[in-house]
Amino acid sequence: MKRLLPYLTPYKKECVLGPLFKLLEASFELLVPLVMAAVIDTGIKNRDQAYVVQMCLVLVGLGVIGLACSITAQYFAAKASVGFAAKVRSALFGCIQKLGFAELDKEGAPTLITRMTSDINQVQNGMNLTLRLLLRSPFVVFGAMLMAFAIDWKAALIFAIAIPLLAVVVFGVMLWTMPRYKQVQAGLDKVLGKTRENLTGVRVVRAFGREEEETAAFEKENDALTRLQVFVGRVSGLMNPVTYVLINLATLVLVWAGALRVDEGAITQGQVVALLNYMGQILVELVKLANLIINITKALACASRVADVMDIQPTLEDTGKTIPSSAANPAGLSVDFQDVSLTYQGAGAESLSHITFSVSPGETVGIIGGTGSGKTSLVNLIPRFYDCTQGEVRIGGVPIAQWPLQSLRQQIGVVPQRAQLFTGTIRENLQWGSGPATDEELWQALEAAQAKDFVQQKPKKLDEPVAQGGRNFSGGQRQRLTIARALARKPRLLILDDSASALDFATDARLRSAIKNLPWGQTVFIVSQRASSIRHADKILVLDDGLPAGIGTHEELLKGCEVYREICQSQMEKGGQEA
């Protein structure tokens, strides 16, 4: 929790005024039993109706003032807790944005979503309750005990015995439940992960008729979470009944002792009633305190989980200080891989091994290989999504680590394997990387990406709505829009990571021709499973299980690279034409 407290600094005033007004309310509440004692011992005993009415008005006044203080305290507590949660959520989102791909792969989306939503909501609720009740409840408990000692110290000894016993119960349950609530939140991560996986792949699930199996798998995770929550809930649920038993036993002893003290003439009937009222106040406040501690325990467990994410140190550090002079050149960028190897965190073997090749500005490079050969891993090193574990990557003749990340990625347009569009409009999606590009520039990008025709057919054209993930477009349309998004920023280095897999051969050919004829002379990397998509590249890199199997032109590789020759032959029809 200490990691998150600095985000509460802007609300120092609210953090002081909220508990202060709660203490004022509690002070007025502690006066109520004394007024009731005065009503019994003076008004009722002497049959003084005017005095009774006067004291009743005093009780009403105490209630109104206490209500005003309570509402004011709630306002300040809510303002502080909601503002605190908003700042923590914003900071957590910022931390997640700074994480490299390696950390995102390790943590996983479900747990990050849980910590952004459920965990921070628990922290907000715990902060609200803390500001309102953490000082008030102990203040009322000890205040009531002191008031009881002021009335009659012998009878008040019952309070001194009951309160420590209650404290043992409350804090014992708290210490036991705190680690269990962390386990509950971890179980929630698993349930969320299963839910997210099924919602994302719902079409695949239904296509293979796996609804029953997936439902059974979800129920297994859900039942495990339910059993854990029930187990923790049962232990937490013991707190209230045990507290009531102890308080009621103390009340019985207090009535018996009070009756003896009245019989001795040491205290009055009104003072006995006051003592019982104070015991009742202690009961209510300890029940509140017990529930408060349960909620604070949950909040602390969730705060720890949030802090764990915020404490992650990205392995990818932005150490670049100045933009290399080569960045000022509008032409394409050169790329050099010098004995580059890559091993993912936790992997047992290298995904890329000893890759060495050079690409001149304006060249087109094709990358091909079998599934899992490391094609995507290689191009992910260029925008520095990952750092190589051996060797060096140079962009524009400058080691990639010397580039400021933002400047480096502004030079690059990336079209990932999975076409991802965002909720909004076509225009907003195209302007993601290009900023306030003009309509003319957007249409040029769409034309080069072979997307102009179907966008023009949309009723609102560039302002056509895009659903989450682009689900209101076909797979080929999504791919072409993501290519247009990359082209709209006029990148000096364009990476197409198997981004035309949903396009037919004719559209793919027109796309490659349009990209090659773009006026700004960009360097292009094309990752593809199709030999036809890269055969006209200036050079082709063939990967085989992370190792370079050959590099050269299409004709050179057909003669000298067996792996490339096998790929091409597998994609040829019997008549010798490409499939």
How would you describe what is shown here?
The chain is an alpha/beta fold and 579 residues long. It has three domains: 5-310, ABC transporter transmembrane region fold (Up-down Bundle); 331-411 and 492-500 and 521-571, Rossmann fold; 415-490, Rossmann fold. The chain is 62% helix and 10% strand. It contains 20 helices and twelve strands. The chain has helices spanning 12-44, 49-98, 101-107, 109-133, 136-151, 153-200, 202-207, 211-237, 239-264, 269-310, 375-380, 405-410, 426-430, 439-448, 452-456, 475-488, 505-516, 531-534, 554-560, 562-570; strands spanning 335-342, 352-359, 364-369, 390-395, 398-399, 412-415, 424-425, 465-466, 493-497, 523-527, 539-544, 547-552. The strands form three sheets. It has a six-stranded mixed sheet with strand order 6-9-10-3-11-12. It has a four-stranded antiparallel sheet with strand order 2-1-4-5, with no helix packed on it. Helix 17 (505-516) links the parallel strand 9 (493-497) and strand 10. Helix 1 runs parallel beside helix 5, helix 1 (12-44) packs antiparallel against helix 10 (269-310) and helix 2 packs antiparallel against helix 4 (109-133). The protein starts with 11 loop residues before the first helix and ends in a 9-residue tail after the last helix. The model is unreliable at 574-579 (pLDDT under 50).
Characterize this entry briefly.
With 579 residues, the protein is of the alpha/beta class. It is built from 20 helices and twelve strands.
